[in-house]
Amino acid sequence: MPTSPHGSPDRRLKPFILAIHREALKTAAAKGLTGSLAQVAALQDTASLVSVKAGRLVTEEEVMRLLLRERRARKIHEAVGTAPVAPLRKPAAPSRFRLGRWRALAMGVTQSTSAGLAGKVRL
User: Fold this and answer.
1) Which of 55, 62, 65, 52 lies closest to 1 in space, CA to CA?
2) Looking at residue 37, what is its pLDDT?
């Protein structure tokens, strides 16, 4: 079976690859494999079984490309179906001026007297 320039298998093999990979993941889990080890074992099994049906060597890389492309397409499809969520905004932080006033009030300093042009306090 011919391979496209991108290295992915024929369209006819796509449903077969997806089904075989699901079964290979279940088989790896039944054997007690977990995590990355289960993923690698399933990928190798899938490539091996697809190679027989395709009549040529199908690499793990080709299978992985197809699986990743499907996963991305599924995420995009799911994202289109959901309504966009507006990002939550934090309230703006108080300005330096306000912080200074709060500190002054907390320390008990009040400016009840007026300051002159030179910044000195008039009594």
Assistant:
1) 55
2) 92
DSSP one-letter code for 121: B
pLDDT-derived band at 5 (thresholds 50, 70, 90) equals very low
Domain ranges, residue 52? 11-81
What number of CA atoms fall less than 13 Å from residue 52's CA on the CB side? 7
Within-domain flag for 3: no
User: pLDDT tens for residues 14-64?
Assistant: 889 999 999 999 999 999 998 999 999 999 999 999 999 888 999 999 999
Residue 69 lies in a domain: yes
Total domains present in the chain: 1
Please report whether residue 21 resides in a domain: yes
